[in-house]
Amino acid sequence: MKKIVTLATLSLGMATPAHAGTTALVGATAIDGTGTAIEDSVILVDEGKISCIGTADDCKVPKKADIVQLAGRYVTPGLIDAHVHFAQTGWLDGRPDGLNAPDIYPYPETMAALQADPGRWHRAYLCSGITSVFDVGGADWSVTGEHATDTDRPDRARVRAAGPLITHASEYNANYVADGHPEFAPFLPFDTDDEVRAGIAHLQAIGSNAVKVWFLKPKPERREELENRLLLTGQLAKQAGLPLIVHATGLDEAKAALRAGASILVHSVDDKPVDAEFLDLLKANDTVYTPTIVVGEGWLRAMAAVATGAAYNIDDPGKCVDDAIIERIVTPERLKGQAERLTPDYVVDRALAIGREQAIMAHNLRAIRDAGGRIVTGTDAGNPLALHGASIYWEMEAMQAAGMTPVEVIEAATIAGAKAMGVDGETGSLTAGKSADLLIMPDDPRKDVTAFRLISHVMRKGTLYEQHELQVR
Predict the structure, then answer these.
(1) Phi, then psi, of 13 in degrees rounded to 5
(2) What is the pLDDT of residue 10?
(3) What are the DSSP E strand ranges found in 85-189?
(4) CA-closest candidate to residue 132, choices 458, 470, 471
């Protein structure tokens, strides 16, 4: 006897959990993440995985299946944020290297709160339609903590994590390890070859999924030394069986990263237009490019809020940002005495610089798209006002505004992200055999990616949730 469920009657309490028999999603337009769409589709879900997807003729609905009628709706794979930081909060308290105020926001207390609630950011992700994330930098616990190791479950997003960043700017650790907490240090040194060897051995030991290098612009007298060490890092990472991923926002630094074999550039090149040499290196390496267009604007807005005392108006259509971080965001005056440098001239100069960088990022994104480069969606979530969950909408919309088509953005936020994380055999597309990680929405995201702001349902590992039941406030 088939049980037919309509979206009008479906509730979280009625949601069919994984491993409880067949669920049939019937009648929607299924946008599979690879450029194909199936009108009036049937998606069969068994034991947390998609067992069949196609037309009614392709996928026969079993007699005892629970049928969810989705006529007029659209189904996509779950979103993938390929650049997040579990050890950062979305406010300035998570980045003491940017604005250090230990008397107001004691960093050990901030980290203790994050570690005590391993499901915190997962709730924000699923609420926003994000079913997989790549944590590309943090202290050891960002790899070894329960939030990263216990994610093969329907109430958490799938996680891959890189762990501490190898960098010649490791002096920033001083702001993170205050009060005798070296376990919170997110940076490993890069000043000798032996330090790099020790750093990669450490990453292997804790189970990191990548070697991340934070390759800030070197001083001229150190450029050759550090570029050579980056080459060595790439060789050692390859020997260790770990992908090399690099933060390199300058064109010269990004080229050095590509020569070293970087598999992912985790940010845009934002200082000048990319050239033929860069594009040739990017394509030869099959390197993934992650634009992170909006994160700089978040930093600017946070600093402006502190400078003026005016709270930022949070753009959170799904109500996925929790009260604890909202409380900090809406009381920026706490930090006003800590921000003497945030003069009106500073804020104006930074606004002009961010505008210039965003224009260059948009140009470079189009150039890489036109050259056939691999592009993924990543938000840098956890940085000030790059909010876990909600910022995925801003980033996708910025990619669309920069010139990518909605279909291209969908693929960047699904199957391309899964490939970048190395989980495309598990997720990223609506494909038989993959995890049933998918979204349901009333509007067609192929016309405009703002449709993702109106997600009605989220399925993770075969468990179907109403979005409003996932809201955290």
Answers:
(1) -65, -30
(2) 53
(3) 130-135, 158-161, 165-167, 187-189
(4) 458
Tokens at 216, concatenated = 């800030």
Q: At what angle do helices 223-239 and 193-206 cross, to 10 degrees?
A: 30
The reply to whether 40 and 150 lie within a common domain is no
Q: Are 439 and 75 in contact (CB under 8 A)?
A: yes
pLDDT tens digits, 40-85: 999 999 999 999 999 999 999 999 999 999 999 999 999 999 999 9
Name the residue range of residue 60's domain. Answer: 3-77+430-470
Q: Do 233 and 360 belong together in one domain? A: yes
Mean pLDDT of 220-241: 98
Q: What is the pLDDT of residue 13?
A: 40
pLDDT value of position 1: 45
AA identity, residue 42: V
Q: What is the CATH number of the domain that holds 65?
A: 2.30.40.10
Say if residue 379 is in the same domain as residue 437. no
> CATH number, domain at 224?
3.20.20.140
Domain count, the chain: 2
Whole-model pTM over 0.90: yes
Q: What is 34-88 written as a DSSP string?
A: SS-EETT-EEEEETTEEEEEE-TTTSPPPTTPEEEE-TT-EEEEPEEEEEE-TT-
